[in-house]
Design goal:
Keywords: Membrane, Transmembrane, Transmembrane helix. The protein is mainly alpha-helical. The protein is 61% helix and 0% strand.
């Protein structure tokens, strides 16, 4: 499963933070 987080107009730290939130939500949904 490949996840790409390309968010325009965000700094790298901001989109890494958002990707972390998304991945956390996905893990909660799978458990």
């Amino acid at each position: 499963m490949e996840m790409n987080c390309y968010i325009v107009h965000f700094t790298p730290i901001e989109y890494l933070f958002l990707c972390g939130i998304i991945l956390s939500l996905l893990e909660l949904n799978y458990n």
